[in-house]
Automatic annotation (TrEMBL):
It is found in: Cell membrane. Keywords: Cell membrane, Membrane, Transmembrane, Transmembrane helix. This is ABC transporter permease. Residues 413-544 form the ABC3 transporter permease C-terminal domain. The keyword Transmembrane helix applies. One of its GO terms (biological process) is lipoprotein localization to outer membrane. It comes from the Bacteria. InterPro entries: ABC3_permease_C, Lipoprotein-release_system, MacB_PCD. GO terms for cellular component: plasma membrane protein complex. It comes from Candidatus Akkermansia intestinigallinarum. The chain crosses the membrane at residues 20-49, 409-433, 454-481, 517-539. It is a multi-pass membrane protein. Belongs to the ABC-4 integral membrane protein family. LolC/E subfamily.
Amino acid sequence: MKILRRNLSLMLAVRYLNPLRTVFSIITLICTFGVALGVMVLIVVLSVMEGLQKEVDERILTFIPHVQVSLWDAQQSVPISNKQVDRFEIEKQLAAIPGVTCAYSQIDGQASINLGNNLQTVTFTSVDPTNAAQMQPLNEMIVEGNADLGEGLDPLCIMSAPVARQLGIRVGDTITMTPLAGGIEEAGRIYSLIQEPLAMQEDKEFRDAIAGFFDGAEPDGDGLRVSPEKIEHMTGILCRLTDDRLRPGERELRDRFFELTAGHPAGAPYTSDDRKNWDDAVAATDALDRDREDGKAAKSINEMVMPTDLEVIALYQFPENLAGPGLYVPLTIAQDALGYSENGEDKIQTFSLRLSDPNRPEEVADAVGRILPDLSASTEEYPMGLDWLVTPWSDRFEQWHKLIANERVMMSFVLSIISLIAGFCIMAVMFTVSMQRKREIAVLQAIGATPGKIVGIFAWQGVIIGLLGAAMGVGLALLVLHNRLEIQAFLAAVNLDPFPMQPHGIRLPAVFDFGMFGWQAFKAFVMVIVASTIPAIFVSRQDPSKALRSN
């Protein structure tokens, strides 16, 4: 009471909030609970959305590589071969990077699987059964059977439970897996290819470019110096002639032209031997026979990878809201299926890394790039050289991450608009109160109350309502979040579930971020003060004499 007597604005603010000397006035209660409900709804929804984002990220990070390292030529991804690098040595170096918990080789692909008359196309992923860090996430998802793949040398597999249900497959059944890459897909590509004329003979721009390559070249000693622009133009035309457009003989000639353009030392003149090699390649292009080239292409079908019989030893259940491979197979079996182990070769598709802190993969990705060997030099097989591509998981699953983040932003925006509407309602109440107190305020002005004192009365009302409403809102939010599963079950029982999680296989998540709680409460507090102060500014500017004479 002493504090109230010393502060006229605060004393009158308390009096106006409780004009009938009851515990609380109905208007004060409505304003306070309006703020509390707004804060509560904002906190609850944002906590659940943040929990959902965290849950999805954790589920993704449980089974996927956190960083993948692949090898690319100028056009497409190429297998990593033991002829290019020492795979096992690179794995050791990658595993030694700070923050990397394990590194392993991986192969992904598509295959058709069948059991009797049932046929379905699925994706498959390789696993190294001797790598415990890679097998642990898979073991946690097993719902039937035993995920013991032994040393990875036997034709065994682990199948997705939904795929098994569709095909009627049980643990112990034997399925036939036919990779699409190098199998059905490749046969279709070759069939489509031989329906078309020879690309090198039909492409007029290519024909003109190889015929006039040395036109306008400047003499340089015993050679000719071709302009860098012409070499670059020729290289661009060759890059356009991708493997899927060329028959085997055409691919060999394209690579010869590549070696004489992109592989030629920069700025060096073309010697007589270089020009002879070029003329021989042009003559070989002219001599290409379509029937002979079609025969070579068709013959390669006989060299395609044959189907592989696999025993299903376990079923795993993938998170319902994410797409996973239909099959997990040992690395050696995947290599055999795709022909990656023929002729003494040891090929893989990617090096995969798991991190101790998967939320910061970019730092490890930079370190990975520094230890990988340089393969940019031109070779007979890859005239343009090869480049490493280091891909963090956040890039591969960027759309998932952005989807939840955008939902949080939009939900926060929508609920903030609702809170803003509540603020306007409070402002309307304050305008009404200020109009009702117009004569009393005029008396205060007549006895010397300054505009600041008048504004202070309503500002203090906003402070009191804002503090009480924000505190109550945080308390109610904590209560709702703590009992969210029970509340959800009750709402679901009456068909009013606002967060149906069953289709996603997730229990209603929430993150207790007290920094976010405080920020939402502070925003509501400031909004109420602003809503209370604006009417007071108008009233404080009134003419006391006119206000006292008005009815």
